[in-house]
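Hi W., the NAP complex you wanted:
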Amino acid sequence: MILLLGAGGQLGQAFAGELRRRGASFIPLTRNALDYTQFDLLFDYVRKMSPEFVINAVGYPGRPNVDGCEQARELTLHLNTLLPQTIARVCLITNTPWGHVSSACVYAGAKVMTGGETRIERDLNRPEIRRLLAQHPDWVRGFTELDEPNFSFRCAPCSFYSGTKVLAEDAIRGVGWSYIWRPGMLFHEREEPRNLLCRLQRYPKVYDSVNCLSHRDEFVRACLDLWQRRAPFGIYNMTNPGAVTNRQIVETIERILKPNRRWEFWGSDEEFYRMAAKSLRSSAVLDGSKLLAAGIRLRPVMESLEHCLRHWRPALDPTDHPGSPTFAAAMGTP
Ligand SMILES: NC(=O)c1ccc[n+]([C@@H]2O[C@H](COP(=O)([O-])OP(=O)(O)OC[C@H]3O[C@@H](n4cnc5c(N)ncnc54)[C@H](OP(=O)(O)O)[C@@H]3O)[C@@H](O)[C@H]2O)c1
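Structure:
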């Protein structure tokens, strides 16, 4: 039996759906059923139920977006750092393997190869880097799992969200048997407020950053496949291969969905941060070759994005539509 913590969240529901589809035996645990943040309660529960594997899909990514973490620092630290540490201890004592959802946001930038040298470039929005990405994408390489996170409290500046995710990785690494899964921003086929493809359709103005993304369901399948194949424990970058800009995504939305609107973009980073954002956004490229070497292939990001948009599933509930106030309340800038 697999124990799924945070089963009511976006990723928790996706894990539950995939486990159901696979016919796996699992317990979808929510904090209403058990306060799994309490060491004693979680320890007793895990000892009693003896799960073969624990999935931690709990975390605070901020509401309506990562800016929310700056205002809710206590909760962010509690869910993103202290809880993973508690789970790590429980799993260590009970000899239970487990998987933790971290984030690609632990990095900023990419490795840039020019003149036979490789250097780390933190700001992917610099015009020369954007040119390089457009003309020679092979010269811009992602961070591997061997690279230390560089969007952290130790390598400031960073967002509070990313800082807490890095602290969690530090606390878990090498303790017991664990996977640390690093997804990028999540997208999928359904018209839901948290889906990046919906957010971009809703924003009056878009910030044209370079992103690494993960198709939500491909990500969840890959996490479970790692466990099912008994791949070595450790950190795995789990973004769909390739970097993509928000402008490219918007152009793809325009080409495939043909919506009746035109997009505006923030004129500069300075304008975006002055007018629309409170915390720094992580913009990074990750290398997924370790996951590939484990026999798990995620589709190239553009292929996966196009597939989503060609199989777009509009919301059945009109209040879930990008034009509605309810939908707007759930949104923010990416
Ligand atoms: N969203 C993204 O784009 C993204 C990308 C990369 C990584 N991640 C990471 O993935 C993890 C899950 O993200 P998500 O998007 O699925 O988040 P979510 O929808 O907000 O779900 C998080 C879950 O955390 C649990 N939780 C426990 N105590 C809570 C509290 N006091 N307040 C709020 N939630 C509480 C809840 O689970 P129950 O009530 O069901 O127990 C909630 O459903 C996080 O660690 C996040 O850092 C997210």
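The chain has 13 helices and 15 strands.

W.
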